[in-house]
Structures are given as structure tokens and as C-alpha cells.
Amino acid sequence: MSRSATSGGGRLAGPGRATAPGPASAPAPTPTALPGVSARGWILALDTASSTALVALGDTAGRLIDERTWRAGYRHGEELLRRIDELLASHSLPVSALGAIVAGTGPGAFTGLRVGLATAKGLAWGLGRPLVGVPTGEALLAATAEAGARPPLALLLPAGSSDRVLVRDGSVLLLTGGVEPDLPAGTTLVAVDLDGRAPEAASSLGRAALAGLGAVLVRLGAARLAAGEPDDLARVVPEYVTLPRGVREQGGEVAWSRDHR
Q: By C-alpha distance, which of 157, 153, 215 is closest to 189?
């Protein structure tokens, strides 16, 4: 299997898509090298855990340079590579200029997470670059705090048409349909992708969290790389909140585990 992640011209190849270089713009500043990161070392961060997908470009100091977000729904795979191409081309960067990949690992729906992590792992392996997996829930809570929300914070996400999951204090709890989160007094609730299924104040904070997610992923990823803590590609796993389409639940209980075996 070839390690080539690009086609001629240094851009990502996708089905039925030309790979000629895109329009040039002002080049991004030269990044500072980090241990284990190429001196050319731009960081590409991506997240496909929610219905709003993002790709972000950062430097090795953890600063966000640029990002692209779009409403992906359940069609993340249709646009992800093209959006990465466009982001890099807008800064006259070939994919080989990337020094590391950062990917959100969820919680999120099966389709989006599968596409995002497969893309991130393929780029990291093909380019021979380090990969850092960042829990999307923790990154969204960090983005909410940076937007000015008062802690403690708890994040509510959809898990299918009626269930939800609660992310709080590093844990993920499944709430079946009709069950409301039991939170300590003073906890600020943040809701993503739950318009009409969560208080409007919580959904408003969720939109602010999504707006800041790219910057947080770049910052947290750069910090892990600076500490010499990239992930083993084989051990970066998604945290799904729903079963794949067509797979029916057979009963029993849901147990959350971070054991990668």
C-alpha cells in the first residue's frame, strides 16, 4: 500500500475531482517547529462529530490561522476532502506542508465520526505525520468557557431521534428519551444540535461553542505535540453515540468504555 496521500501538484485526490493547484493567496507565516513535527509544521485540525463540520489550519504555537465550517448533516464524506483542499490552496500550501493532524473523536454520530477519523488517519499515515485525537465534547466545553460562560459546564448532544448524551467532568452519560439531566445547582448547560430539544439559552451557548471549536482543537493539539504526546494511529478510536444506519439495537445496556483493546 502506497503512502502517497496526494496527487500531482500536492493536493488531495478525490473521486472525479481535478487536482490542479487552486488560486493563490497571501502565504501564511512560517511556523515554529515542535518536537516530532516537521519544520514545515502546519497543523490541520478537523472535526466531523456534529452536523457542523470543520477543517482548521493552525501553527505549531497553537494559533488558529484559518478555518472552514459547513452544515454537513449526514453527508460529511461528500465535502471533507474538497474543503481541506480549498483551505490549503487559499494559503498556497501543498498537503506535504502539514506537520501534524488533529481530529475530534466525539461523542458523535457514526457516519460523521467514521469519515473524519478515517480521513485524519489516512493523512497522518500517508504523510508520515503525527496524529492527535481530541475529545470533541471536552473541546466544545473549553470553547464555551473561552466564550465567557460561567463554569461548571455540562454539554448535551443528540444520540438519535430521542436520546441524548451528557458530557460532564470527563464522563459521558446516555440519557434515554424523556430523561432530563440531573445537574448540580449552578451548572451551565450547553446544547449542540438540539434545537427544539433543549433550552434556547443552552442552544445559544452551543452555537458559540461550535464557533470556537477550531481554535480549541488547534491549541489542544499543539500542546499535546509540544509535550511529545502524539497518539498511536491504531489506538485513536471514535466515541459513537448512535448505532450505524440499518443496525438495530438488540437490547441490553449501554456501557461507555475507553478501553481500546
A: 153
